[in-house]
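[Structure tokenization] protein backbone as discrete codes
[Encoding] learned vocabulary of local backbone shapes
[Protein] chain in single-letter code, fold in tokens
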Amino acid sequence: MNQISSYINQANEELEAATLLLEKNYYRACISRCYYAIYCTVQALLIVKNINTRSHRGVRQQFSQHFIQTGELSLELSKALRITYDLRQLGDYDQVIEITREQTKIALEYATVFVEQASHWLNTH
């Protein structure tokens, strides 16, 4: 299995875990898995462009530069990445903020669409 396939498999596993966590009302953990599903998918995309970055900030910046600004992928995917990242930051580092079921469902929807659309792009390029 190549590295791109490994990242996409991990992204799909993260989505499955997120779905189970939502069913059990573990909202913070679900949002974290949603973000990591997107993160793994972006890593797979960056490999296609021969870009290697390790930081979360670098991944977001490189994704925007090489896929959103070029028009190769939808601006909606950039929005999905930004929103799930922000929610993960709140969920992981701000214990006072309540994470709602609605926010969690939105994050899962964004992550699912992101992985689907990016996987389609990977399969056609």
About this structure: The chain is about 80% helix and 0% strand. The chain has one domain: 1-124.
